[in-house]
């Protein structure tokens, strides 16, 4: 027979005093009693006067769980037992002083639940940046990481970024490996607009390049371009371009590299050269003959030397050096006139 059935059987035999009532506690699986003033107690008023358990329950609730005696805990929790008989929960050990007895019981249970709370909090505790327990630790980590990353990029950029080399060229000279003057196309006598002849002056310069870089720099192409200058007007002669190319040159880091760059001065002739010499209508021929009339004659020119560095070709940046130089006359004025006429 359950506790509830036993109590109902007892109630039929012995009614409660006037003004008292019994209430069922589903949490404790037993009845508690309410007196006419509204105070609650576990003690059955039909039995002998209760031993006051309020102070005992309150003192038990205020003590840490580690200090509670097994007997005290058992006294407060005993109403939970399904095997408790009406006579058992009518004893003084189950008495409660007021309607706050449920709160007293809960205060005894609370330390048990509190023991597992830190573990649950640790399990559910928020993680910052995936692995840090505090926001400040996450911020410090990423600040240090970002600083190291930027410092590494700065150091790498300082040592790896290509710097413009210093380019120096010598005075042009006539190379010994090729004829100083060549005629291409038709002969000078039969040159016409549809079939022009081209005068080619073969020259060379010695190029010296100092690389300030910390790594070797590979230059895919070095372009040497310019024009002859008319010394009378000090203007460039567009019909006498200067062109030269060197390819695949490797500049060693912190070292000087020297090489020879061949270039040509070309000039097309579309009518008889002799007529142009006599009339002075060809600016290039007229300038060459006049400048080479003396033994130390020179042909002034303006030039640009441009480097195409493979490592930074995608940026479109090409280091350039400009200047002026003087080309030695490939022949005397008399020899030139005889050649051209």
TrEMBL record:
The keyword Membrane applies. The chain crosses the membrane at residues 140-161. The keyword Transmembrane applies. It comes from Chytriomyces confervae. It comes from the Eukaryota. Residues 14-47 form the WW domain. Keywords: Membrane, Transmembrane, Transmembrane helix. This is WW domain-containing protein. The lineage of its organism: Eukaryota, Fungi, Fungi incertae sedis, Chytridiomycota, Chytridiomycota incertae sedis.
